[in-house]
Please model this.
Amino acid sequence: MKKLKWMLNLMALSLFTFSCQSEANEVQEEEQDFNERIELSQLDSIRTVLNDAMPAVPVDLFRKAIAMHLQFAEHNPDHEFAPVALDYAQGFYEQIQDFRSSLMVINRILNDYPNYKGKQLLMYNKATHHDFLRDTTEARQSYEAYLKEFPNLSADDKEEIEELIRLVPYSIEERIKMQSGL
Model:
């Protein structure tokens, strides 16, 4: 009888411990979900402020938005919004003409989130950023990778990319002269 009582007490203690652990896990998950919602709300707010202040947005505000978006993606790499947050960050870098930093984030998105819905635009931006920075080898390779990755472009889009590849060796000034017939 003592053994049975002892076993019943052990089972009750086990159930109580399991129940408490389960509740603790639920509380922790709820807290994490709540914190993610707060972060997403803050990201939404800063993007609204940036949009409302266009075009006279101070660079410091862009840098704050960049840091917040990068931090969210760093803390929540598996969250569905992580690649979107990174995409916003690279776009903000582009807005302040920090193309090298934008390229670093673009490469991170393309490497870490290969099926990201904005991949086509990112690959195009990657090529144009390299082109703008006069990294002609990377620009050409990026334009060619874009054509290879998206073979079903419209004829006009394909022609535009092929023209950009042809113009890669020329500076912006030389391109302007070529287009104006000088």
The chain is about 80% helix and 0% strand. The helical segments are 2-53, 59-75, 82-95, 99-112, 119-132, 136-149, 155-167, 172-180.
